[in-house]
Write a structure and sequence with these properties.
By secondary structure, this protein is of the alpha/beta class. The chain has 15 helices and 19 strands. Helices cover about 35% and strands about 20% of the residues. The structure holds ligand BES, magnesium ion and zinc ion. The site of magnesium ion has 4 residues, from loops.
């Protein structure tokens, strides 16, 4: 999709001219006065589409409600614009111009909205989906548009990888993609090195699969960084549950159990381009969780990188085992902050649904910062508790802990498990995106499938792009 910045979008010949209106505010826009039906009040997300019958340079006018002027924010723009784009796609429009009337710097949120709504995963389809090919904007900052393109490309990479079948997006493939990202220094550790590093929990998960594990460490190291941060993505390229195998319906979408890793790859792609004054480490302990004669078993006792021992209570609680070793590794780097992002627990979906990701951590200020950045970026996070009680029922008779407790409060229990592998000198936040990473039907600006959740928030947190 091409984005053209022009002097005035109003008179451009294109398929659709999108004209915005605020709710309850008189508009002086002559186009709205001429074409809008009386029922068009400007309510958030409201649209009307009218053919201009050659009375105007654009073939159609699409009115777009942005809600109350005082409540306008980035997510309103992203979601509303996405809605407009979907309408344009319905009539097979190719070119759209935007006449957005606000003094809010809306271009980043707008371009992200257009690109999210214009996304399709049709690589494997012979008949391709219709896409918008050109958009026209005026009165926007080119730097904003460029920043939005960078974020959009990162979201797209994350969505593509999570939508890919597990047969394509293997641990080796993720490693290959990481190595291809520009502006970063990337190292990949294979099994012998992972063993040497003492990552016994991660290796146990990986051992049942014929796909070899790949530990991926992408580094972006500027001179005199303002701070040092690690982002860790859960990289389960397929989660069958292992010997504690999942029922068919739960296994169906488990190709996306590497959505956290996909988000980290997306973020690192942008970091290599933006080159912020922050040292950033992107870390993925990639593997598959499969049942076989070589699989790890319930009752096995594993030793993580920090020496703590774990009794395997359930082989389907595998993500926390891979993250445990990745967290130890990140702490040893001596970073100031760690953010991990993981499709970790079904319990988080039960608690928060598909609109909101869970967030937990060892520092409330840090967690709040990320929640606020999320609000600003159009992604919702809700803090879940980290009380000792959630840890108590993971006590084991034969090891330092078990990998599961009771089902109830499972997202917090998983958070407390991860905390065992984080040293106190580092600020750490854990994002549970089990409910938000993959939609089983179209939702807001997203089609069915991967959403790339986390990319916008983490990028804005690190690089303050918007
Ligand atoms: N990958 C799943 C969590 C998940 C479920 C993500 C649904 C996205 C959608 C995770 O590895 C898992 O299986 N968790 C178990 C943990 C349980 C055994 C303690 C779960 O949530 O059931
Ligand atoms: Mg599992
Ligand atoms: Zn999993």
């Amino acid at each position: 999709m091409e984005i053209k910045i022009i002097e005035n979008t109003k008179d451009i010949q294109c398929d659709v001219l999108v004209v915005s209106k605020f709710e309850g505010k008189e508009t002086s826009n002559p186009l709205l006065n001429r074409f809008a039906p009386e029922t068009f009040t400007g309510k958030k997300g409201q649209t009307f589409l009218i053919h201009t019958q050659n009375e105007y340079p654009s073939t159609y006018i699409l009115g777009l409600g942005l809600g109350k002027a005082g409540a306008l924010d980035n997510s309103t723009i992203t979601e509303s614009v996405a809605k407009a784009v979907k309408k344009c796609v319905e009539i097979k429009a190719k070119s759209i111009a935007f006449d957005i009337d606000t003094n809010f710097a809306y271009e980043v949120a707008l371009v992200i909205g257009v690109s999210i709504a214009n996304y399709h995963f049709d690589k494997y389809k012979n008949k391709k989906e219709h896409r918008i090919s050109e958009i026209y904007l005026s009165n926007v900052a080119p730097e904003g548009v460029n920043a939005a393109k960078t974020i959009s490309d990162s979201i797209k990479l994350a969505r593509n990888l999570a939508n890919e079948p597990a047969a394509f997006a293997t641990p080796s493939k993720l490693a290959e993609i990481a190595q291809g990202l520009e502006g970063l220094e990337t190292v990949i550790y294979d099994e012998p090195k992972i063993r040497e590093l003492g990552m016994g929990a991660y290796l146990a998960v990986a051992q049942g699969s014929t796909q070899p594990p790949k530990f991926i460490h992408m580094k972006y190291i500027p001179q005199n960084p303002k701070k040092r941060i690690a982002i860790i993505g859960k990289g389960l390229c397929f989660d069958s549950g292992g010997l504690d195998i999942k029922p068919a319906s739960s296994m169906l979408t488990m190709k996306h159990d590497m959505s956290g890793a996909a988000a980290v790859l997306g973020v690192m792609k942008a970091i290599g381009k933006i080159r912020p004054d922050v040292e950033v480490h992107g870390i993925i302990a990639a593997c598959e969780n499969m049942p076989s004669g070589a699989s790890y078993k319930p009752g096995d006792i594993l030793t993580a990188k920090n020496g703590k021992t774990i009794e395997v209570d359930n082989t389907d609680a595998e993500g926390r085992l891979t993250l445990a070793d990745a967290l130890c590794y990140a702490c040893e780097l001596g970073v100031d902050e760690i953010i991990d992002i993981a499709t970790l627990t079904g319990a988080c979906i039960v608690a928060l649904g598909t609109a909101t990701s869970g967030i937990m951590g060892n520092n409330d200020e840090f967690v709040k910062d990320i929640i606020e950045t999320g609000k600003y970026s159009g992604e919702k996070f809700w803090q879940l508790p980290m009380w000792q009680e959630y840890r108590d029922n993971m006590d084991s008779d034969v090891a330092d802990m078990k990998n599961t407790g009771t089902r109830n409060g499972g997202a917090s229990a998983a958070g407390m498990f991860l905390k065992e592998f984080v040293t106190d000198d580092v600020k750490w936040a854990h994002l549970d995106v089990a409910g938000t990473a993959f939609m089983d039907k179209p939702y807001k600006e997203f089609i069915k499938g991967a959403t790339g959740v986390g990319v916008r928030t983490i990028l804005n947190y690190i690089a303050a792009i918007i």
